[in-house]
Amino acid sequence: MVILGAAVYEHIVLIPKWSAALPASLSMYQGTYALHPENFWIPIHPITILCLGVALVVNWKSNRRKNIFIVLGGYIFILVLTFGYFVPELIRLTETPFSDTVDPELVKRASTWEALSLVRLIALAILSMLLLSALPKSYERHKKHITQGPSQAAPLAYDNDSKGG
User: Fold this and answer.
1) 127 touches 76 (CB < 8 A)
2) How is 31-79 classified by DSSP, letter by letter?
3) For 164, which of 12, 40, 101, 123 is 20 to 30 Å away at the CA?
4) How far, in Å, are 52, 88, 109, 127 from residue 32 at the CA level?
5) Which residues form the domain of 53?
6) Nearest to 79 by CA among 7, 5, 130
7) pLDDT, tens digit, for every residue of 83-141?
8) Is 161 a member of any domain?
9) Residues 6+ apart with CB under 8 A from 123
10) Per-residue pLDDT tens digits for 3-19
11) 72 falls within a domain
């Protein structure tokens, strides 16, 4: 969820600023006082993968495992795309020398990057919703167990739960 929030922030706050008048608007990433978003993005990805991995291990015998596994796989796929296209292209864009003249080719590349990044953001949002949907999977069964008592409710074992909850 942190990554989704950070990506939304970048799309609402940063991208409209750095893509406003390329290459002059890229100055926020250049010089002595430049922004360095990689200081956030580089450590957050391994932390996220680690957390998803731990969640997968902890929920291995539950029906949550499927959703967590899909999210982990989807996230790794998004990272492959990110490091294969998004990061290299963003580096090429931000390293463009300063100029007051708007470069139409640079604007076109930035627009393509932003459009594809929005698709990536939507994919992250879908994965986040899928991960959140895993949370209540055993809650209903737990609630039944508490309200009806252990003798009347279904057992809390998750191994053979074919109802998804």
Assistant:
1) no
2) STT---THHHHHHHHHHHHHHHHHHHHHTTTSTHHHHHHHHHHHHHHHH
3) 123
4) 36, 22, 26, 37
5) 2-136
6) 7
7) 999 999 999 999 999 999 999 999 999 999 999 999 999 999 999 999 999 887 665 55
8) no
9) 74, 78
10) 999 999 999 999 999 99
11) yes
Backbone angles phi, psi at 101, to 5 degrees: -85, 125
Residue found under tokens 């291995």: 60
8-state DSSP, 22? T
Separation CA 110–CA 26 (nearest Å): 11
Domain count, the chain: 1
Q: How far apart are CA 85 and CA 141, in angstroms?
A: 44
Q: Closest by alpha carbon to 102, among 20, 14, 15?
A: 20
3-state secondary structure at position 3: helix
